[in-house]
Amino acid sequence: MVLEQVKDLVEKGQMLPLMEEFYTIQGEGYHKGTAAYFVRIGGCDVGCHWCDVKESWDAETHPPTDIKKIVANAAKYSNTIVITGGEPLMWDMAPLTSGLKTKNLHTHIETSGAYPLTGTWDWICLSPKKNKLPTEEIYDVASELKVIVYNKHDFVFAEEQAAKVNENCILYLQPEWSVREKMIPLIVDYVMQNPKWIVSLQTHKYLNIP
Ligand SMILES: C[S@@+](CC[C@H](N)C(=O)[O-])C[C@H]1O[C@@H](n2cnc3c(N)ncnc32)[C@H](O)[C@@H]1O
Ligand SMILES: Nc1nc2[nH]cc(C(=O)O)c2c(=O)[nH]1
Ligand code: SF4
Ligand SMILES: [Mg+2]
Hints:
Layout lengths: L2 H9 L3 E11 L9 E7 L22 E3 H9 L4 E6 L8 H9 L3 E6 L11 E4 L9 H4 L4 E6 L3 H10 L7 E6 L4 H14 L3 E3 L3 H5 L3
Parallel strand pairs: 2-4, 4-5, 5-6, 6-7, 7-8, 8-9
Antiparallel strand pairs: 1-2, 1-3
The structure holds S-adenosylmethionine (SAM), the ligand Nc1nc2[nH]cc(C(=O)O)c2c(=O)[nH]1, iron/sulfur cluster (SF4) and magnesium ion.
């Protein structure tokens, strides 16, 4: 296929820059502890300095992959497919999720919400970032809000974001991994004082799994 054709198909969401795919246990948030197949799409310009997958940022380093191939492969592993990145909403998620839905799979997304919401989702994990705030539309449909706590100001940011989500949205505070020893006691205190919040840990890192 010539380069222009590939570019056009990526533009339409028929091909996506695929970084990696793996069958594992969802480590974070509401579905933690449950088996799921993860599809990590390359490309992100949000620029979190503590991001644990910086290799995902440059979409050019990840091969444009036919979504039909992604769907057929994912279906072999699990009923639940978690689309993450990078920032998956930089791309049109409609074709990929409709392909997954054709196979009756549950579609979950991990997103900063910094780009317009596309796709059909059974579960939306919104993890907002100060450097590039979510679009207004996603607050109404987020299933869970997962705020990463790197410093004390992140509690203020968490409350600002919680004020914007829908009433059914589940609220999580998750320590940034590199400062977890310092922040976990503060998160524990905060959740006891403000019990609408729930602690989320990156349990896959404790389990030594992807
Ligand atoms: C790598 S991001 C990819 C999806 C999307 N770009 C986002 O940020 O939601 C997946 C999840 O990991 C979280 N995350 C990334 N780096 C982290 C770190 N160092 N400590 C804790 N959580 C982190 C993000 O906030 C997000 O909830
Ligand atoms: N096990 C596991 N659970 C996760 N939940 C969200 C992840 C992500 O990077 O999006 C992730 C991940 O990378 N691994
Ligand atoms: S938005 Fe997600 S992928 Fe992008 S830098 Fe932040 S944590 Fe990493
Ligand atoms: Mg991760």
